[in-house]
Write a structure and sequence with these properties.
heterodimer; A: alpha+beta; Sufe protein. Chain: A; three-stranded antiparallel sheet; 5 helices; B: alpha/beta; Aspartate Aminotransferase, domain 2; four-stranded antiparallel sheet; 15 strands; about 40% helix; globular
């Protein structure tokens, strides 16, 4: 099954798993924060919800639709940040952004590393970053809709 | 130039013209390029590339102003290009051809010159539900300024215009009807002659967006009876940045200029300027002379092969592609109009169009994935976008086979099918 070559760098099995069965994929009535993300050129659209208490993201979820990369990135994000202090989420947001767009950050980002192949596909970077910008907007209470294209 | 003028060319003969297009010889992503994004822009034959290069090497000077030899020579080439477009569209008079940057600028010209003068509050602008954004947004801008209302001809599930609804929407309030000759997103060939006839019966002016039509079928503006017809050179094997608007002479004569500057005036004083005649009135500033020369070469190129032959070849490819694509489980065609040009739009269950686009690209297959600048149409079908393969004269069955192989690969990658036995 190695006939896929470079495509496997982008489309790792974990990404398909999260695309088929996105985690934390629901709206949240008790959210303290939420924001919309929309890349109109792609059509990718999502809403990210977060319940923040005592400076900690106690729960996080999302709804919406998009390509495999954007859906998997959102799903992996919700797994990664659930239970994380808000300041650490902001650090992770910066590190993820660096990994997806420039160069790899100094630290290991664990399961999120599966998204690192996106950097070699410039047309798809915006798909992977949309959920992260939307979460950032939600927890910083930015009012505008996030977009990354 | 390259086609044998005599005898009937087969589909294979037409595809052999791929050799005229240098870019098709370059590998992309390490693969043979299967370029199926012709609805976005076509590739350029060597004859067109040479014509533009030759213009700058041998003929360059500004037009309509120099007494020197090169200026006159350049003016002659520019005028010859206009005559070529006139013949190509079978316009009655050469003055009915205005050069623009492309279809978008041509439509903007009509909206901002004809529209601003002729539309008033309560008037209705009738557009089809399958228009490209370039035939929607200029009219929204003019509607905002004039108080005119935009009405939309609905699209059926098959991707055809609902002609009954069109007739119902037409009234004495309808001042303008704007419809694409061929849909860029669905490939639907609209019954434009019938639309023109009906629109004229209520006194409306009709613009046809020919961007997707001119490379695929012969167009006769007199037979169609339309008031305006717009197209781009770059979807017709010509360069970007050049296109044309056909307008009926009486309408163009009555329209005010929309951009001011050199070349569009008769006399200028600080008290008052008088304008040049049609079409110079609409061509302010130094035009894209090299682009006109190359467009002339591009039209000569397709005329030499023959649009009927090109159309027949693309029809063969479309049928071949549709039959092949129909064999892919979970593939759904978007737009199944009876009359279609060489465009096939589709979605595949479980794979987003952008993922398809990336995977096909890695196979050397260039398609368009997205909303095709037709967001209202995508909303009509409840889709964020589609994958679109669009054909040109140089495409072959091999390109369709590469598309098919790429689609099977995408399905295997997404775990939707297992390795096929050879």
């Amino acid at each position: 099954m190695n006939s896929f070559g470079d495509l496997r760098e982008l489309y790792q099995e974990v990404i398909f798993d999260h695309n088929r069965r996105p985690r934390n994929f629901h709206a949240m009535d008790e959210a303290t924060h939420h924001a919309d993300g929309h890349n109109p050129l792609c059509g990718d659209q999502l809403t990210v919800y977060a319940r923040v208490a005592d400076g900690v993201v106690e729960d996080v979820s999302f709804v919406g639709h998009g390509c495999a990369i954007s859906t998997a990135s959102a799903s992996l994000m919700t797994e990664a940040v659930k239970g994380m202090p808000v300041n650490e989420v902001e650090t992770l947001f910066r590190d993820m952004h660096a990994m997806l767009t420039e160069s790899h950050p100094d630290r290991d980002l664990g399961k999120l590393e599966v998204l690192s192949g996106v950097r070699e596909f410039p047309a798809r970077v915006k798909c992977a970053t949309l959920a992260w910008h939307t979460l950032h907007n939600a927890i910083t209470r930015a009012r505008e809709t996030a977009k990354t294209e | 130039m390259n086609a044998p003028a005599q005898g009937k060319q087969t589909s294979v003969d037409v595809a052999a013209h791929a050799a005229d297009f240098p870019i098709l010889a370059r590998p992309v992503q390490g693969r043979r390029l299967a370029y199926l994004d012709n609805g976005a822009t076509t590739q350029k034959p060597q004859a067109v590339i040479d014509a533009e290069a030759r213009y700058y090497s041998e003929s360059n000077a500004n037009i309509h102003r120099g007494v020197h030899w090169l200026s006159q020579h350049s003016t002659d080439l520019y005028d010859r290009g206009r005559e070529r477009v006139r013949g190509f569209l079978n316009a009655a008079q050469v003055e009915e051809i205005v050069f623009t940057r492309g279809t978008t600028e041509a439509i903007n010209l009509v909206a901002f010159s004809w529209g601003r003068v002729n539309l008033k509050a309560g008037d209705e602008i009738l557009l089809s539900g399958m228009e490209h954004h370039s035939n929607i947004v200029p009219w929204q801008m003019v509607a905002e300024q004039t108080g005119a209302l935009i009405k939309v001809i609905p699209v059926t599930d098959d991707g055809e215009l609902d002609m009954d609804a069109f007739r119902t929407l037409l009234s004495e309030r309808t001042r303008f009807v704007g419809v694409c000759h061929v849909s860029n997103a669905l490939g639907t060939i609209n019954p434009v002659a019938e639309i023109v006839r009906q629109a004229h019966s209520v006194g409306a002016v009709v613009l046809l967006d020919g961007a997707q039509a001119v490379a695929h079928q012969a167009v006769d503006v007199q037979a169609l009876g339309c008031d305006f017809y717009a197209f781009s050179g770059h979807k017709l094997y010509g360069p970007t940045g050049i296109g044309a608007l056909y307008g009926r002479k009486a309408l163009l004569d009555a329209m005010p200029p929309w951009q001011g500057g050199g070349d569009m005036i008769h006399t200028v004083s600080f008290e008052r300027s008088t304008y040049a005649e049609t079409p110079q009135k609409f061509e302010a500033g130094t035009p894209n002379i090299g682009g006109v020369v190359a467009l002339d070469a591009a039209i000569a190129y397709v005329q030499n092969i023959g649009l009927e032959r090109i159309a027949a070849h693309e029809e063969t490819l479309l049928q071949y592609a549709c039959e092949a694509l129909a064999s892919i489980p979970g593939l759904r065609f978007i737009g199944q109009a009876q009359q279609r040009a060489g465009i096939v739009s589709f979605v595949v269950d479980g794979i987003h169009p952008h993922d398809l686009g990336t995977i096909l690209d890695m196979e050397g297959v260039a398609i368009r994935a997205g909303h095709h600048c037709a967001m209202p149409l995508m909303n009509r079908f409840g889709l964020p976008g589609t994958a679109r393969a669009s054909f040109a004269l140089y495409n072959s069955h091999e390109d369709v086979d590469a598309l098919m192989a790429g689609l099977h690969k995408a399905r295997r990658l997404f775990g939707l099918e297992v390795e096929r036995s050879a």
